[in-house]
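Figure caption, in words: inputs first, then the predicted bound structure.
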Amino acid sequence: MTISENYQKIREEIPSEVRIVVATKGRTPAEIEEVIEAGATDIGQNYVQEAEAAKKAVRGDLAQRVSWHMIGPLQKNKINKALPLFDIIQTVDSLELAKEIDKRIIKSGKEFIPILLEINIGSEKSKYGIKPDEHERLEEYLQQLAYDIAQLAHIRLVGLMTMGAFGANPEQYRQDFYRAKNIFDLLAKMRLKQVDMKYLSMGMTDSYHIAIEEGANVVRIGTAIFGPRKNV
Ligand SMILES: *Cc1c(COP(=O)(O)O)cnc(C)c1O
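Bound structure (pyridoxal-5'-phosphate present):
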């Protein structure tokens, strides 16, 4: 099957209201062009440098047709470079990072940027994102964080992102996604000004079916579209 066929097959099998962010780390500009021509609307990048190279190399009309999502950890010293490249940052995991982004937005030529809070729902040490295990009162902590982010003039909190535990079994994924959905609902219920909790981003190649069953309306898929990664 070609990239194009893979994308279209997944697009047809999942509900139309679920956004597919195509995870493109390690893929060539030609592969990214092919998936956009097949109808992809959203491209995910893990690295600022790679995103910059991809956006230069991909044909301009195709690059402009899609939204570009930062789905990898964003280092402070890369924010200035990242802001003009991305339409949305899915990986904000602290007030500190949100403030750093907020400070730099105007200079980037944007008025604001939509972000998702990243929760490391499995509390895996090796991963980025807010770790539930590190907060005794997780719900209160997240509500305060959402409130504080809502005060930043150039940041728009629009949802939650999570990765399942690495190599989890289906039941573990389901439990983790269920918990993330509850947190998402809790933050949505706050009805904060300048906050619009509309995206719940969870599920990858091995877990997107479960994620959608548990309420995801954004999934991030790489391998099922492009095949196995070679060296990333
Ligand atoms: C690579 C990646 C994905 C996609 O993973 P696949 O298993 O290739 O579908 C999703 N989200 C993030 C943050 C990634 O880095």
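The radius of gyration is 17 Å.
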